[in-house]
Amino acid sequence: xxxxxxxMLVSVLGVAALFVALAVYLRLIIRELEMIxxxxxxxxxxxxxxxxxxxxxxxxxxETGHIAPEVTKLNAALxxxxxxxxxxxxxLAGVIAGVQRQESK
Length: 105
Prior knowledge:
By secondary structure, the chain is mainly α. The chain folds into 2 domains: 1-65; 66-105. The chain has helices at residues 3-37, 49-63, 67-104. The longest helix is centred in the last third of the chain and has 38 residues, at 67-104. The chain is elongated and about 120 Å long. 0% of the residues are buried.
């Protein structure tokens, strides 16, 4: 038998063994993921646990989607409060300095 033909046959068998091993391990991985996810239904309400989590996260996203515009308004109002408190702080510092000058006389 020709050595090149022998090497070709060994290579083809090696590639075939590799694909069989990949298919077996892929099927085992899919089986484990299905066990984690629960039974899946495609056309009715989801029974798959991962689908339920996805729907729950989507519901949270929809319900909290209105928060962003309100937070922007709240930040503007709190910035105005901060500026007002800084002005009050400056005025009180002036009053305290004035009282201390009167007491020292």
